Amino acid sequence: xxxxxxxxxxxxxDRCARLWFNPVITWDGKVVPCCFDKNAEYVMGDLNNESFRxxxxxxxxxxxxxxxxxGRHMIEMCMDCTSVLRGVEY
Length: 90
Description:
three-stranded antiparallel sheet; 3 strands
């Protein structure tokens, strides 16, 4: 750790309510898992090509959900997530 860096001492639990209740649709119709995917790096689908239901129940979302349940700490956008912090509501 260098000066000015912060390290979270909280372990990220392998769960996430945002993934089940807070998908985000970008200005161009892309569906991403949540608001912490600010750069749309984890696109689950495109509403210009398929329905929301197809995306929500599709293979990309299913695989992503499984990765959260087995190794959330491995997903970059989850490092900034506040959903695991006590006293922080979303």
